[in-house]
Amino acid sequence: MQRYFVKGNVSETTHSLVFSKDQVHQLKKVMRVRAGEQFEVVDDSSQLAIVEVTELDPFEVKVVELLEQKVELPVSVTIAVGLSKGDKLDFIVQKATELGVSEIIPLSLTRNVVKWTGDKADKKIERLQKIAEEASEQSHRLKVPCVTSVMTLKELANYTSDFEQKLIAYEESAKVGESLQLVKSLQSLQENERIIFVFGPEGGIEEQEVELLEQSGYLPCSLGPRILRAETAPLYALAAVSYQCELL
Question: Does the global pTM surpass 0.85?
Answer without folding.
Answer: yes
